[in-house]
Design a protein that fits this description.
The chain is α/β, with parallel strands linked by helices. The chain contains 20 helices and 14 strands. The longest helix has 22 residues, at about 390-410. Residues about 1-15, about 225-230 and about 450-525 have low confidence and may be disordered.
Length: about 525
């Protein structure tokens, strides 16, 4: 029996047989795929993993989130799939619908013009469309375990000609929530040898042990650094009291003004609560949890990817597979119970060499988790002081001054002279406290329209009105009219960009006839 370190050493020796591959070494069809994607070079994970896939050797690839893993397992399929044969020849299994959509999008981009059909298979959508796609010829199936098993059990999908099986986010696929499904799927695999590749940001010892039930003499490629967390991510912690979390989050967002941010919570109830708080405070936010209808989830993600939504509040369903290149901030409203999940959360930002920041609002038991992250994953947190109201006021005032000066530069001489008519009025207002508050409200509305992205109406996916009390399944409690940056029912005092007293209510084998939706997300802790 070998130790984990010995096993790693032995596996790493296998990698010496396959030198890294370069673009000039690729076949014509692979180079066409790279041209489709606009790639001029291979990422390190692609260069290292491609030779194993091309040779047909089972492999486990550990690499950072955003390092190009999807391309590493899609590209080799170009040489393995026969477009003339209309049967399924490769399957990519993923833990969530969102990741399936993301993988399909990249696969279709790479395989454009190569006559290889890609079929997404996941719950929340009708079976008929997927069955029709199978009949037309599903060379590559990308799906969640539940729905894939449903089609296998019903005879809609056959794996007789399968050559390649890929587990994306393998640590999740071999977790207790999916392990039984994986064993059931094993019963549908063909008798002939197939290549099994597993990709993940982390490979705990238990996962590597379970992987042996699906792989044979697999090599282990560790393309992460000793620090599993992304090198390009800065980890910042705010240590506060539990009842200060809401205020800290609001101040953080006001100070940072993120271009795009995901706020992670551990439960659906907390997601709804945080989203309600932010919506009431006038932020352009929406939420994502596994119980949203599929069309609503996709609509929210489309808004995020298009840059039309700045703040997404989500459970860990959003941590897997969502590729948002412009994402700048990953914020943990609470640290996860499973510390490896933090790696995936933080990895949403700082992708593909971009710089990013992962913020954690730490209280109570979170401090224990933060210590374990430092000890076990070498995550070095920078402890920052919580911004004060004065800090927020100064930051917003500075941004407002810049915006007003930019506005001034867009006016011609006549327009500027016309505006001077109001100078005496403004001076008079500044001498009266109540009048000054009116000006502050106008400035705050101007900021809302220029430093955040307005939405034409509240999201259709938001729940009905609910008070944001802890422990309740909350939603948006008031409908807002964001057009023109105006936010109703805020009961605020205004003044210097401060956001005090805004009416906050915030405190700190056979699978036949199974009749399930096939989401692949059935045993997620949310």
């Amino acid at each position: 029996m070998t130790t984990d370190n010995q096993e790693t050493d032995q596996n790493e020796e296998k990698t010496a047989h396959y030198p890294e591959i370069k673009i000039e070494n690729l076949t014509e069809f692979l180079q066409i795929a790279l041209q489709n994607a606009g790639w001029t070079s291979l990422s390190p994970v692609q260069s290292a993993a491609l030779p194993f896939a091309i040779k047909g050797q089972d492999v486990m690839v550990q690499a950072q989130t955003g390092s190009g893993k999807t391309g590493a397992f899609i590209l080799p399929l170009i040489e393995k799939i026969d477009p003339i044969e209309p049967e399924c020849q490769a399957i990519v299994l993923v833990p969530t619908r969102e990741l399936a959509v993301q993988v399909v999008k990249e696969a279709e981009m790479l395989l454009e013009g190569l006559f290889i059909n890609v079929v997404p298979v996941y719950g929340g959508t009708k079976y008929d469309k997927q069955i029709k796609a199978f009949k037309k010829g599903a060379h590559l199936v990308v799906g969640t375990p539940g729905r894939v098993l449903d089609h296998l059990a019903s005879g809609n999908l056959s794996l007789d000609l399968l050559t390649t099986l890929i587990f994306d986010e393998a640590d999740r696929m071999l977790s207790m929530g999916f392990y039984q499904d994986m064993l059931s799927l094993k019963g549908y695999l063909p008798d002939h040898d197939i290549t099994v590749a597993m990709f993940s940001a982390t490979f705990p010892a238990t996962v590597r042990s379970l992987a042996s039930q699906f792989q044979k003499d697999a090599a282990f490629l560790n393309l992460s650094t000793d620090q599993i967390s992304a090198d390009d991510v800065t980890h910042v912690a705010y240590v506060v009291e539990s009842n200060e979390k809401d205020k800290t989050l609001v101040r953080l967002l006001e100070i940072e003004q993120p271009q795009a941010a995901i706020i992670f919570c551990n439960t659906r109830q907390r997601v709804n609560y945080v989203n309600t708080v932010l919506s009431r405070m006038g932020f352009d936010s929406d939420y994502l949890t596994s119980d949203l209808p599929q069309h609503a989830r996709e609509r929210v993600l489309d808004r995020v990817r298009a840059g039309k939504l700045k703040i997404l509040v989500a459970t860990d369903v959003a941590a897997r597979g969502i590729d948002i290149p412009h994402l700048t901030h990953s914020i943990q409203f609470e640290l996860p119970d499973d510390l490896e999940v933090y790696i995936h959360r933080a990895g949403r930002t700082g992708r593909a060499g971009a710089k990013g920041t992962a913020y954690s609002i730490v209280a109570g038991f979170d401090e224990v988790q933060m210590h374990k992250l430092r000890r076990d994953f070498k995550v070095e947190f920078e402890k920052h002081d919580v911004p004060t109201e004065e800090d927020v006021s100064a930051a917003l005032s500075g941004k407002l001054t810049v915006k007003l000066n930019e506005l001034k530069e867009t006016r011609d001489r006549l327009a500027f002279e016309r505006a001077t008519r109001f100078v005496p009025f403004v001076k008079a207002l500044s001498e009266d406290e109540e009048a000054a508050r009116l000006v502050a409200v106008l400035l705050d509305d101007y900021m809302a329209g220029n430093l955040s992205i307005d939405t034409p109406a509240a999201s259709e996916s938001a729940p009905d009105q609910a008070e944001p009390n802890r422990g309740e399944k909350g939603g948006r409690s008031e409908k807002r009219d964001n057009r023109g940056g105006k936010r109703n029912n805020r009961s605020r005092n205004g003044g210097g960009g401060n956001r005090n007293n805004r009416g906050r209510n915030a405190g700190g084998g056979s699978q036949k006839n199974r009749g399930r939706s096939g989401d692949g997300d059935r045993k997620k802790k949310e």
